[in-house]
Design brief:
mainly alpha
Length: 189
């Protein structure tokens, strides 16, 4: 039930939301999604140091939770701390045991490296991610859009975008993003 409260946080008084997060994390210290939701709320409010503390507590409570590591790294990347974001993803990879968790973190690392124009390293990370879990449409999308497209490798990018469409992203916004990319690259059959 505590996790449901994070869905309403935008319409709630921030103080009350913090109290609910505090109670929830006290009730279950290992509930990584709750730590993540709280940290993301603080980040959206511009309280990045507090968000870091919460991400740290969450990763200590459940070091195998890949989405928590990913969210923390993405926050750091948005703040321009690219080296720190990479360190966080690498720390998460050391902890992650499940193939899907490792694939998620490798895909995030590939995106980070590609956005930094480190395409050879990015491609390696994306290929490792796909070797672990080739049915993730967002990994195919990011590999195509962030890594292959900027290098002018349109045919390969189209193959991965088609695969992403075929696999079907869960969220409508992701399906639309994939469809727009297919159209922009001229590979929408």
């Amino acid at each position: 039930t505590w996790q449901a409260w994070d869905l309403m946080e935008d319409s709630l008084d921030r103080h009350w939301a913090r109290e609910l997060f505090e109670k929830g994390t006290q009730a279950d210290l290992t509930h990584a999604p709750l730590w993540q939701a709280w940290a993301l709320m603080e980040a959206r409010l511009g309280h990045h140091d507090r968000a870091r503390e919460l991400f740290q507590k969450g990763t200590q409570a459940d070091p195998t939770n890949a989405p928590l590591w990913q969210a923390w790294a993405l926050m750091e990347e948005r703040l321009g701390h690219h080296d720190r974001a990479r360190e966080i993803l690498e720390d998460g990879l050391q902890q992650a045991r499940a193939a899907r968790a490792r694939a998620l973190l490798l895909s995030a690392l590939g995106g980070l490296l590609a956005r930094g124009r480190r395409y050879a390293e990015a491609e390696d990370a994306f290929r490792q991610a796909l070797a672990l879990h080739d049915r993730d449409p967002l990994t195919h999308y990011h590999y195509a859009w962030d890594c292959l497209r900027p290098q002018g490798r349109t045919q390969e990018a189209c193959q991965h975008l088609r695969r992403a469409r075929e696999l079907g992203a869960r969220k409508d916004k992701h399906r639309q993003k994939i469809q727009r990319a297919l159209k922009r690259l001229g590979c929408d059959d």
